[in-house]
């Protein structure tokens, strides 16, 4: 058989730099993320979505785009930054999902506690 077998779908994972565990209300934390691909296919597209499991907050892309929970947004870079702003004094948890146009999904979670002022 002289036909080429072209692989289009490659696994990927997400990595993130450490983030603070505690936030004050209205405090913003930068989340640095990287998409690690096991292979490269030019037509692969990646999308991001998130879900606020506990608490309340806002999540933005580095270009200022405000993400709405469960809406899909196209990722244009493999290394990117997200900005989470606490809107709650309760414990907060966000789940971030990245999926490709082949249906593969990776998920990463972040937990934040309310930062108590020291007296």
Summarize the structure in words.
The structure is a single chain. By secondary structure, the protein is mostly beta strands. It is built from no helices and 10 strands. A 5-stranded antiparallel β-sheet has the order 1-3-8-5-6, with no helix packed on it. Strands 2-10-9-4-7 form a 5-stranded mixed β-sheet, with no helix packed on it. A hairpin with a 4-residue loop joins strand 9 (92-100) and strand 10. The chain is elongated, with a radius of gyration of 17 Å. 14% of the residues are buried.
Characteristic terms for this protein:
119 residues; mainly beta; 5-stranded antiparallel β-sheet; 5-stranded mixed β-sheet; 0% helix; elongated
Topology:
Elements lengths: L11 E5 L5 E2 L4 E10 L8 E9 L2 E5 L4 E2 L5 E3 L3 E8 L5 E9 L4 E10 L5
Parallel strand pairs: 2-10
Antiparallel strand pairs: 1-3, 3-8, 4-7, 4-9, 5-6, 5-8, 9-10
């Amino acid at each position: 058989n002289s036909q080429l077998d072209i692989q289009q779908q490659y696994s990927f994972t997400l990595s993130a730099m450490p983030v603070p565990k505690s936030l004050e209300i209205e405090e913003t934390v930068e989340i640095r993320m990287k998409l690690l691909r096991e292979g490269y296919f030019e037509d692969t597209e990646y999308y991001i979505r998130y879900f606020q499991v506990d608490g309340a907050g806002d999540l933005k892309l580095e270009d200022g785009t405000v993400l709405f929970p469960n809406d899909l947004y196209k990722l244009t870079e493999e290394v990117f930054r997200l900005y989470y702003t606490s809107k709650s004094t309760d414990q907060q948890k966000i789940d971030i999902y990245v999926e490709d146009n082949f249906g593969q999904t990776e998920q990463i979670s972040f937990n934040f506690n309310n930062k108590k002022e020291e007296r």
